[in-house]
Structure formats: structure tokens, C-alpha cells
Amino acid sequence: MQLFFQKYPDSDVPLEGSEPPLEGSGTQLDVMVPVVIIPGLFGSTANWRSFAKKLGEYCPVFVVDQRNHGRSPHADSHSYSDMVADLLEFFDCHKLERVNLCGHSMGGKVAMMFGLLYPHRVHRLTILDIAPIEYTHTHAPFLEKMMSLDLDALESRSEADRLLSDAIPEVSTRLFLLQSLVGNRGKFNWRLNLSVLLRDMPKILSFPSSELDGLSNTGETCFIFGALSDYVKESDHHQILNYFPSAEFSSIPRAGHWLHAEQPQAVLAALLKFLELGKKNDRFK
Questions:
Q1: In this structure, what is the dihedral angle of CA atoms 142, 68, 48, 154, given to the nearest 10 degrees?
Q2: Partners of 145 in the β-ladder
Q3: What's the rounded Cα separation, in Å, for the pair 160 and 221?
């Protein structure tokens, strides 16, 4: 599957594995290891634009829309094996031999599975506010309410916002979900494949442990989580370290699950520190 993506900065920068370093330089600045960002459930390249643009001042950044999200194709399945296969195809298509992989929430589980199956393709792994466990909460009520909207009769996005308000009382959550509603009066449609996401919600909430039995990745890994979030508890650290023995942990104050939107500067600082990208590369100025 050909995933939709956006790249920052727009100018071409030599990527590690794409061409040899400049003769006589021998410096890491000549050939950069790119960052690939995988958004979470309901997320897309649009939600990451401002963060990725800022990170793109330090290194090349790719943000992908996962299957059944954003501008990527819809498919009739939504398993982690599917999403890892999509990501591997994306790497191969764009000649990305090795990357710094960063995933949030559902995208973090994709990044973990990819890092365990293809450790040689990952330089450093960053996981945002998710653990390799099965969760008990569900977003099924959101999906059911979104599916109940009569898009043919919908007058405006503000009407959609009003109709969703009973089932989704948090304004910020509704606005986030409504970013995937595109079009205008009489021609609205969801970029999300709502029916497949609803059907495969149990797969999304789980983690494919049986497919990863006995695997571990000893490479550099960082789990960044929101201090106000309950997605990564201290009791989850043991399971994380089973898969990623070298993992380090970083808590972002005053941030919940959507930490990159709530505290973008703090998350960016933590990511830059882990990736050792504290100073801007001259070629990005």
C-alpha cells in the first residue's frame, strides 16, 4: 500500500543509505538519519504539521498517514501486521535504509512491532505515550456516533460538531476528530475508514505479543509519556523492558495522552535530546 506522506523541510537533504557521504567530510551533518513519525488512531499528517515543521529545522522528517487514515488508501483490515507491512513498503519505496522511528499511541505500537521485527532498519526508536500492552478502554462510541451522521444532509462542520457533542463532550476531542471530515454541504465524507476501525477496535487496543514471542530490541529506545496520562504506568515498565532492555523513560509535565499537541516544546526538547540533535544543522537555516 502506498502511504500518503509529508516531508520536512521541502528541500532535498542527503539521507543515510541513499548516497555516500561527501568526499573528505566524514561528518554526520553531510548525511542525515531521517525521522519517520507515525500518528496514532484518528491522527494524520495534518495533526503533526506544526510539530514536524519545527523538528524539520534539525533533520529530515517524514510523517505518514496510516491505512484507513488521512489521505492514505482504505483497506478492509487494520491489524498491526498490516500497518508494519505498509511501513516496510514505505521505507523500501523511498530508499530509507535506516531511520529514527517515532510513533504516537497506535502509531507507537506499530513502531514497536517494526523495531522488533526489523531492528536493522531503526537507528533510534521513540515511543510516545503508549505501552506494549492490551488496553481496556475503547473509542467505539466515538466511531458509532460519527457513523450515525447523515453526511448527505449535513449542512456544515459546525452542525457536525453540534451533533457529536452529546457522545463526545470534550471540545478538543471533537475538533481533533472533525479534522478528518472533509468536503462541504451535500458532499461531506470521512477520511477515516470508520466501519473497519470500529470492527477492528479489539485488534487496535491489543498488542500482537504472540507474533513477537522471544523478540527484543537492544537498541537505543525512549518512551516519552504525559505525566497526566494513564497510558504508560510504572507497572508497565517491566513489560516495556522485556522488549526493549535499553529503554529510557521521559515524563512530560502538564501533558496528557496528546502530549505533542499539549506540550509541543517540551516533547520536541525531549526528542532532540534523545536523538542528539540539540543544535540546528546549517543546511536547514
A1: -50
A2: none
A3: 40
pLDDT tens track for 141-176: 999 999 999 999 999 999 999 999 999 999 999 999
How many whole angstroms separate alpha carbon 173 and alpha carbon 140?
14
Residue type, 255: A
Check whether residue 116 and residue 227 sit in a common domain.
yes
Q: What digits encode the pLDDT tens for the residues 44-71?
A: 999 999 999 999 999 999 999 999 999 9
Closest to 251 measured CA to CA, from 237, 238, 276: 237
The DSSP secondary structure of 176-242, one letter per residue, reads: HHHTTEES-TT--EESS-HHHHHHTHHHHHS--GGGGTT----S-EEEEEETT-SSS-GGGHHHHHH
Which stretches does DSSP call E strand in the chain?
5-8, 35-38, 61-64, 99-104, 122-128, 181-182, 189-190, 221-226, 248-252
7 φ, ψ (degrees, to nearest 5): -120, 140
pTM of the model: 0.92
Name, in order, each residue with C-beta under 8 angstroms of 1's C-beta and a sequence gap of 6 or more. 67, 72, 73, 75, 85, 86, 89
If one counts the domains in the chain, the total is 2
Query: Which residues lie across from 102 on neighbouring strands?
Result: 37, 126
Assign residue 91 the CATH number of its domain: 3.40.50.1820
Full domain range(s) for residue 273: 5-135+206-284
